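#onboarding

Welcome to the new folks! Below is a worked example of what a typical request in this channel looks like: someone posts a single protein sequence, and someone else replies with the predicted structure as tokens. Don't worry about understanding the tokens yet, we'll cover that in week two.

Example request:
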Amino acid sequence: MIDRSAGLPPAPVVTVQSSTYSESNLRSMLILAALIAACQLAGGSGALVTDPSFYGELARPSWAPPGWLFAPVWITLYTLMGVAAWLVWRTGPGRRPALIWFAIQLVLNAAWTPVFFGLRSIGGGLIMIVLLELAIVATIIAFARRSRIAAVLLVPYAVWVGFATVLNAALWSANR
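Example response:
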């Protein structure tokens, strides 16, 4: 038998990454999950005060989507929002102003449902959603300074809320 290892350099030593990387990666994934959960909870909290029959009782424009469509759209948007916030969080120092805008728009988002459905205030909902849309735009601008991808992930949210603003205005007009 021929010894093929003769004259070859020794095999390289393989080192295992330190636990610091694993702990950092785990922390990052936990923060991602927490941000998505926070967004979902902000949206889901409105279900506690939502009377689904209220939307059905309203005079609606012919282009109004059916009530069942809102839940899947919002679940998707809240997930995108959480991922966007996580991408900004990962950018490190200087991220605070962008995340404050994110928190502001999330609070406004969560407040719309109790105003519109809980208080059955279409006009109050319209005021809230206009403020929400402005806060979303400010958040997109702040996010774009930190992560273009994060800003782009919020664009469908801004478009949907823009549509919802027009719908809210139409509902207010038709149900005064």
